[in-house]
Design a protein that fits this description.
Blueprint: E1 6-10, H1 41-57, E2 63-68, H2 78-89, E3 93-99, H3 106-114, E4 117-122, H4 127-133, H5 143-153, E5 159-165, H6 172-180, E6 186-190, H7 204-216, E7 224-225, H8 226-235, E8 252-255, E9 260-262, E10 276-280, H9 286-290, H10 293-298, H11 307-310, H12 315-318, H13 340-363
Parallel strand pairs: 1-2, 1-8, 2-3, 3-4, 4-5, 5-6, 6-7
Antiparallel strand pairs: 8-9, 9-10
Helix pairs in contact: 1-2, 7-13, 8-13
Length: 375
Amino acid sequence: MQAFREFVLKVHQRCNLACDYCYVYELADQSWRDRPVAMAPHVWRAAAKRIGEHARRHRLDRIDVVLHGGEPLLAGPSLISLITDVRAAFPGARFSTQTNGALLDAAMLEALAAHDVRIGVSLDGPSEHHDRHRRHRDGRGSHLLAARALRLLAGHPAYAGILCTIDPATDPVTVYESLLTYRPPAIDLLLPHTNWTNPPTVGYAQWLIAVFDRWYDAPRRETGIRLFEELISLILGGTSRSDQVGLSPVAVAVIESDGTIEQGDSLKSAYPGAAATGLNVFDHDLDAAARHPGIVARQSGRAALAESCLACPVHDICGGGHYAHRWRPDSGFRNPSVYCADLRRLIDHIGARVAADLTKRSTGRAPADPGGIRP
């Protein structure tokens, strides 16, 4: 059994935006409608107790706790009480949150920073791109609010970085360079959550390759991009900590606002109830969740891959892609990622670039034809 090392607490079920690609509100699972709007103190204290028990039972020195939503900052000052109670149950808890930035002001920033909470902001590029998808319910864009939050964070120790959901209709280098203006220590580039019931449009590989080349060819390191760094690590024989690529076990538990324990909530993009375990923090410990068949499947590496994935020469790097992106109604999750072709192109491109650089450094000249990363 793989112990959980990351706990996502759904501190608030609602959001102040209406992003058209949101997997929580716009896709298959609508269970948020039946849950409490905010996590109550008795729920987070029960969750804190279970987290502390689990961490001590598995002799963990550190765990990561993600304050999530909806929009987590809608929970307001109660976040500080929650953080205090979780740390009392397990002092080795590290906290982070991902926000749309609308409610992040100087007072909120300093309150969270005083409790060592790392803060990321979601931004999809310049206003004409960002506001295409990330809008208020009345249609107003949210770019101004996200930009304000990022200017507030720039240079602050609490600044974790930017999360950007890819839109292949945008200009990739323009998007990337617009994100750089906010001096992010890291950028997460995310493929939109979809699956074989609604395959994506083409162009994601081309978009990612353009950003990779701009990032990789920069004369100095401007920021970290987790997807690219994870792929380079895997190409060089290392491991990945991302659930987007690689075969490393996923060690994440989600605790909803009513105390139910769920699998990774991105599974909600597949079908209603896809993330459910039937467990809760009042009646069950987290070891019971770690033994749940759905969670075990996500931790089983190669054993969870489709036969076509195992036959692919880069399956140990791709890892089948994000688990939620493999869903097909007639065969479940044992399928290649719906982004399979894009991932293969991206991996081969990065592998060729890295191989060419390694050859150049070892011989003093570039190879005539670096090709792919595998024969």
